[in-house]
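hiii, so i know i said id send this last week but things got crazy w the move. better late than never?? heres the sequnce for the chain we talked about at the cafe, plus the structure i predicted for it. fair warning i was half asleep when i ran it
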Amino acid sequence: MMEVGNISCILQKSLEYYNNHKEEDYVVSPSLPILYFGDLNAYLKSDFKVITAGLNPSDLEFKQNKTDNPNFFRFPEFNHSIESLHLALNNYFNVKPYEKWFGKKYISKSGFLPVLNGLDTCYYINSKKNTALHTDFCSPLATNPTWSGLNKNQQDLLSLKGFEMWKELVLEIKPDLILISIKKDYLNQLPIRFIRTIESKFSRSKRIEYQLNHYKLRFGDFSTNLVWGSAQNTPLQPFKDKYQLGIKIKKYLSCTN
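okay and structure toks below
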């Protein structure tokens, strides 16, 4: 089991990282570094540990409406201390999660949530056997514009330390599966090895083959499964029945591990 001090150390690094970059005009301020979303304790007790991963948090984590000034309405416990940061991140799905991205408990048909449910896991505790977390591997800082709208120098500045913190987090919480749905080019930033295509779907109108691929990710002696799926506006959008997709992933991994 992970020691509390280890996660506190990474959270301290993330808070220092935010303070070092909060004056950059593309970093949302005021905000806080989002190392992960979800109940870490419930995740660690899960039999099958799953994390989802994106690039960096949305600025809408700190706005109810696009025109609002940034605020902490999703993170009411946060008072700039490490303890309050830990509490705010752990309670995220108990307060007011960004449902357009993370879905609603029990009824979501889009994004990662129905896939997670097919894997018998969920961001929301006590709804499935296992509890999942969401993370971002480029940076824990919310930006405006979004990550793809930043120039290369801005991306490099944030990801230099951002990726290292994500790596530290992964090595601490040791997921059995990392689920990712982003532009495929971003996978080049990860230490992964392609295994096989689990599912594919060809769009005749767009002349595009959408894929769901299995990779192995390795950090030193630690190795885990990574499943990447094509994305559009939301994670895994090209695939219709995402709950069944989760069931298929679970069955596939049980046969390959």
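btw The chain has a mean pLDDT of 93. thought thatd interest u
miss u guys!!
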